[in-house]
Amino acid sequence: YIFTDEMHQSILKQVRDDSNMLQLIMVSYYTGMRVSEVISAKFIFINNTLCFHVASEGGKTKAAKRIIPIHSELLKWLSKRYNFENDKKLDFKDKTSNAIGKKFGRIKTKVLNQLHLSKEEALHYVHHSYRYGFVSMILEKGYEEIELADLSGHSNSYLGKTEAARTYFKPQKLPKLIEMIECIPKLEVLL
To answer: Has this prediction a pTM greater than 0.85?
Structure first.
């Protein structure tokens, strides 16, 4: 399940005074990272492009380790808070992804209840809904799953193989990753 624009706006209004949650939502929307990845991601410059180095010390899957260029709108938003030094992480008051994830869950449930979603329906919307939305938005722009694998951290090992099990897929280059990231529509922060 993917958050609707109305859900995005309602959640953003609910967290407008909570810098941790606002940052989590903004980064998650523009990167599709898991909560644990948002907490551990580090800033890195590659060819003068600011990126997130995700799961640099390992992640949920072998493919989790990746580079995600920072969307121009997210960069504007983050530049109000950071000086962007290599190997620095995002600042969160709550230090564990578990604590942040639970807090997000409580806020999301409250907002969806206010929007009159049934409890059963609301259960389908989780932080991972940002990940689904991220992937869906890029796929809707005409990119293929195999192209998106380097951004999403999904394994591409089963994609692009011949019967002889040779892989002819090469990792996407930075300009292509930037192109895909920039096709994510601007999230209007109407606080």
So the answer is: yes
